[in-house]
Amino acid sequence: MSECAHAADLPRPEPVPLGTTCPECLEAGTDPVRLRLRLTCGHVGRRDSPPPRHATGHFRSTGRPVMRSFEPGESRRRC
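Now predict its structure.
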């Protein structure tokens, strides 16, 4: 990820994940695929594609923009 305006505010080291999967998926009974880790708070959420867009829902309710892939072997960051 190229540095964004939010990168300077990220905790170092990264936060401990709050769980191993998307809690919204578990509650809704949907498949927790393409997970993302919020780098401000440790929330794990399902990526937007395919829906139901749990990662975006968390961003909209908290304003925490930066995340990275939470899939094994992946470390891409996004804002």
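Helices lie at 23-28, 54-62.
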